[in-house]
Design goal:
five-stranded mixed beta sheet, nucleotide-binding, Non-intrinsic abc protein 5, 19% strand, 5 strands, ABC_transporter_C-like, elongated, ATPase-coupled transmembrane transporter activity, 35% helix, membrane, 5 helices, alpha+beta
């Protein structure tokens, strides 16, 4: 195990405090009958598992959906803009506050399909909450 990367991933996913409260830390076995984790904790663990291998391309399905605004901002800053800053990242999101950092945005809604940059696509955000947005950072 690459310890430095492991520690960096835990920090980027805000998991250090969560692991401290588990009886066996990161060695705690979590299964269907075991410890109950919140949706946000589950999401952050899923992200950490995806981040640990040093891949060239990462795909995330709504990585900010189960976390509060503060934690979502931390995740965005630390893992998308930080840890993965030199990687290709594709993610699906409804959180429009994270779109300005995208290199490309694929915007899907009931009546609209667009691929563009943030500055050009913003005027078309008529019904952002019901749209699905795929974001690419190259």
């Amino acid at each position: 195990m690459e310890r430095m990367r492991y520690e960096r991933v835990l920090e980027a996913c805000s998991l250090k405090k969560d692991l401290e409260i588990l009886s066996f830390g990161d060695q705690t076995v979590i299964d269907e009958r075991g410890i109950n984790l919140s949706g946000g904790q589950k999401k952050r663990i899923q992200i950490a598992r995806a981040l640990y291998p040093n891949a060239d391309i990462y795909l995330f399905d709504d990585p900010f959906s189960a976390v509060d605004g503060h934690t979502g901002s931390h995740l965005f800053r630390e893992f998308l803009l930080g840890l993965l800053s030199s990687k290709v990242v594709i993610y699906v999101t409804h959180q429009v506050e994270f779109l300005p950092s995208a290199d490309l945005i694929l915007f899907l809604s009931t009546f609209l399909f667009m691929i563009s940059t943030y500055g050009w696509i913003v005027p078309f955000f008529l019904d952002v909450k019901s749209a699905i947005t795929f974001v690419v950072r190259l």
